[in-house]
Structure formats: structure tokens, C-alpha cells
Amino acid sequence: MPYCECADAKIYFEVFGEGFPVLLFAPGGMWSNISKWRGTQGEPVRPVHDWTEVLSDKFTVVAMDQRNAGLSSGAVSSNHGWDTYSNDQLAVMDCLGFTDFHTLGGCIGGSFCLNIARLAPHRVTSVVLQNPIGLHPEHPEYFPDTVTRWAKELSQTRNDINPTAIESFKNNMFGSDFVFSVTRDFVHSLKTPAMLMHGKDKPHPPSISAELQKLLPADTVSLKNWERPKFDMVQRNTVIQFLESNTPREFL
């Protein structure tokens, strides 16, 4: 199995297709892993495409299980947070020898996209934010509670999960009032080409997507109606067109 060995983590990834690379960040919150793109047999049509399949005809698609999700594992420390995940993600691309790449993230993946663009703006050629998470004004407990559940699951198979460290980690991840990973000032200053597919529910608040649209560059591609099955081809074609339009010419 393909793994990238980081300083304190072992990150599982899969690669599909060929062409300019697209790094995917799956939905699923703390459980973000490759399987979240695919759904399960008998499940109704999922609103999000399986980008590992859709994009592999034109791009090299890199999908990964985030730290301590799926087949990936790693430490959980009191000083860990969004940068910990971004450093894992950059390490995967370094392992594969990819200097520049697009990013596409669903759910928590939108916040991963923004943070990696902050840490490595010279490497990230575009960001696609699909159904981005953020603080819901009426449900501020939602994401901190997910960390509690996730840590409880980890504790069932590991003896190194420290409750005090988890509380600090929880605040580092979800202690702010926006998209959690970056500030409003950063989004307002973003130079990386961006595409936004608006969220519409508790974990993906419409108010957060509306604010993102105001803060992102004026030429940001915005889709309010993108969910499958009704908008299947709109979602597919708009994402592919956006990624192609921002791919370095030598890869086209």
C-alpha cells in the first residue's frame, strides 16, 4: 500500500490518472478519507461527485486519508492543528515529486484548501471549495463535538490519546468563528484562483459560503446550485473547466 512517512505520522494515499496533479481533500470532518468520495452500495445518489473517477481522465488525482482517519495514523498533540494536516498534505505531494498542484476539498476539505494555500501559495495553483464548513451561529458546538466523538473512537484502539491534549487540539482546530483554518483577512487577500460551491446546512452553513463569496476575489467561480443528481453535469463540467483554465499551459 502507498504510504508517506512523515515525522510523526503515516499517511495513506492513492493516485489515479495522469496529467497535472489535483490534490483531493475528502469530506467527512475528522474522518476525512478516500472512501468518503465513493459512498456505499445502495446509497442514494450523493450530491458530490467521486472526483477520483471524474477527474482522472484529464489529471493526476491524488487522494489521501487524513491523519488518524481511514488507513492513516499519527500523533495527536496539544500544539497540533490545521498546519499539522497541511504539512502532512505537502509531504504527500513531496513524496510523489509534485511541486505545483490544484486542490479540491469537500466539507472540511475546503478549510484544508485554504490553509495549504496560505502555507504554500507558490505551490497551490487553484482551490475548489465544495460545501465548505464553518461556524454555524446557531450550532457553535457542532464541530468541537465531532472532535470529542473522534477522540473517543481513537481511544478504543490506542492508549496515547491524552484528554488534555485533545481539548487543546479541539480549540486549535475549531476555536474560531469563520472557516476555522484561516482568517477573513487571509481570504480577502487570496491571490490563488478559487471556485466556490455553496453549503446549505448545519455543518456547511449558507452564511459562511455567502461570506466567502464576498471575501474571495471578484473573479471567483461561484455555484449555488451544484448538487447531484439535478445538477450533475453542471457540477462536473464547471469544475473541470475551472481546473483546466488554471492549469499551466505546458500540461494542456
Concise overview:
This protein is α/β, with parallel strands linked by helices and 252 residues long. Helix content is 35%, strand content 17%. It is globular.
In words, what does this structure look like?
By secondary structure, this protein is α/β, with parallel strands linked by helices. The chain has one domain: Alpha/Beta hydrolase fold, catalytic domain (Rossmann fold). The protein has eight helices and nine strands. Strands 1, 2, 3, 4, 5, 6, 7, 8 and 9 form a nine-stranded mixed beta sheet that branches. Helix 2 (82-96) crosses helix 3 and helix 4 (142-155) packs antiparallel against helix 5. The longest helix has 15 residues, at 82-96. It is globular, with a radius of gyration of 17 Å.
**Overall residue-averaged pLDDT value:** 96
**CATH fold field value:** Rossmann fold
> What's the β-strand tally?
9
SSE order, one letter for each helix or strand: EEEHEEHEHEHHHEHEH
End-to-end Cα distance, whole Å, is 30 Å
How large is the radius of gyration?
A: 17 Å
The share of residues in extended strands comes to: 15-25%
Helix share, percent: 25-40%
Classified by CATH, the class is Alpha Beta
Q: How many DSSP H or I helices?
A: 8
Q: Based on the coordinates given, report the CATH architecture.
A: 3-Layer(aba) Sandwich
